[in-house]
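quick one before i forget lol
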Amino acid sequence: MSPRTRILLVILLLSSSLFLWLNVDWSKPVTLYRNYRHVQALLQNKESLLRAEQLLKDEFGENTSLSYNVSIDLNGAVSMKIQARRTCGDPDGKRYLETAIRRVHEVGLGWPDQIEYLYSCGFTKPPSFKLTAQTLAQALEQRVTEHSMCRDLSWGPYSLSGSTAQQSIRVTGGAVDMKLLTDEDGNVVKVQWTPAWGVNSPEPQYRLMLCMTYALLRTVQPDWTDGQVKAGWHDVWRSSTGPDSVRIERFTFDTKTKPLELVVYPSQ
């Protein structure tokens, strides 16, 4: 290489170095490296995360867990995201999330930039009467005649539309409408009795509600004695002033007096 060429090459290298020194922001690589080391330190700090998770478990139960991840973008900015998980229990996560953020900070992991809440719980299909709507309606009509107070009832036509069956029951001066709600298999999951529209005689309507309670207890508890049925009957209608809910065997009886209503469904 000639001396002239060597000199030109040196000048070119010096010019390039000067250009890079003047135009490149050398703080970014330094920041990028510093933040990279910070990210590595956070990711390796598993003991602190376990302490934060145990604090959550102590307050909210063993169905909680906590994890986090830290990332760094091309500009060197560090971002930390907390993932708070809960399996079943109270789905209201506001207090849970606020506590999770505080616990993460308290153990030395800093304040997160994002928090993700994951709630999961297995779904249990609601139980049924294990009877179709028509079968249950026919059983009620048959059972209700076993009580002398209920032998003058007359039953209107039975109708089924989609998942709801309807039928009216009448006595002199009163009437109630019965609705039977069914599941996808056609089995009844809830029965509701309400006063028929336009009928305002309280005593006949109340007698009809008592008769329906008797008939249903006889249907779902066929082996009960008269004394057991009578005790259940009184338990259902024990409140004369407001809403009430009574569980009898595997069924829940919800009652109202103003307006009059009886709803029965299998308990979970």
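fyi The radius of gyration is 36 Å.
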